[in-house]
UniProtKB/TrEMBL annotation:
UniProt GO molecular function: cytokine activity; frizzled binding
SMART domains with a match to the protein in the record: WNT1
Record-stated family: Belongs to the Wnt family.
Name listed for the protein in its UniProt record: Protein Wnt
PANTHER family referenced in this protein's UniProt entry, alphabetically: PROTEIN WNT-11 (PTHR12027:SF7), WNT RELATED (PTHR12027)
Lineage of the organism: Eukaryota, Metazoa, Chordata, Craniata, Vertebrata
Keyword hit for Lyase: no
Annotated gene: LOC113054401
Keywords recorded for this protein, A-Z: Developmental protein, Disulfide bond, Extracellular matrix, Glycoprotein, Lipoprotein, Secreted, Signal, Wnt signaling pathway
Tagged with keyword Secreted: yes
UniProt xrefs under Pfam families: wnt (PF00110)
Protein source organism: Carassius auratus (Goldfish)
Subcellular localization: Secreted, Extracellular space, Extracellular matrix
GO biological process: animal organ development; canonical Wnt signaling pathway; cell fate commitment; neuron differentiation
GO cellular-component term (any): extracellular space
Domain of life: Eukaryota
Amino acid sequence: MKRTFPSLPLCLLTFLLLSQQCTGIRWLVLSQTTQHINKTQHCKTLPGLVSSQALLCRSNLELMQTIIQAAREVKKVCQKTFADMRWNCSSIDASKFLPDLERGTRESAFVYALSAATISHTIARACTSGDLRLCSCGPIAGEIPEPGYRWGGCADNLHYGLLMGSKFSDAPMKMKKKSGSNANKLMHLHNSEVGRQALRDALVMKCKCHGVSGSCSIRTCWRGLQDLKDIAMDLKTKYLSATKVVHRPMGTRKQLVPKDIDIRPVRENELVYLQSSPDYCTKNDKLGSFGTQDRQCNKTSSGSDSCDLMCCGRGHNPYSERVVERCHCKYHWCCYVTCKKCERTVEKYVCK
């Protein structure tokens, strides 16, 4: 039987169709939420949540402001990390949610990995800063520190961040009712775990010096997470070397295996994708491409931000822009710097 839809505005119909497909990271639309979540009734009105996420919201109400902040961080960090490439995370614009994120592309792999890492990172940091009453500092490291070092401070609570972050971000892929293919679900779950593993690898020792006149005779140390921008760059490296996979019977069940080298299983630390990406050169709503027309490019670069690569051979247009900079700075003893403000004209370029 042919399915028919009631008469709906095209934009609303598109949203409804995409929301059925993009459930895995649909929670990222929370980045647009301005409401302060302090009542369980608010969980019903939050956009982009599946039923299990709404249930988690009601039972962990204070956690939602942190999750909303995580959604904003995903968009900001993603766009900054890919500012020099044709695909610049435009797909996670909450008002569009372009379909390339559910086609199983390597861009989808990056966004799922970054989303999983960011939500756990944000929760772990919120525990440390005292923004969440249900958690506090992470545990003190078990090993004995070197001479001149001592454990102290407030460690980022990575354990709690991973626990609650994975419960929330993986919930759509673990729903019993069928929403999307099993291959896509396996891919998204795998890439989300790669993101969390990158977060585990980003837990490093941080120290603060103590001593007379800054001698640093003793250091108080704790386990702290690297900044999200560093974790995103690590995931970008994995994105560039991602492995194309197929959903193939292996033993008693279907698994994701490398398409061209299926003699080995998928590695736990590699991003995987099912479908090749568009080239993102021209606008194509069906493929989720904004195109690169009017994107800024670097005429002197030979990398991905070069005018040749960014503009896909279409050429570029120059324009002039006046910028104000600090100049003629002087150091005054002791201890401040004074500078003047200088204007200069710089030439920039955008893709045709």
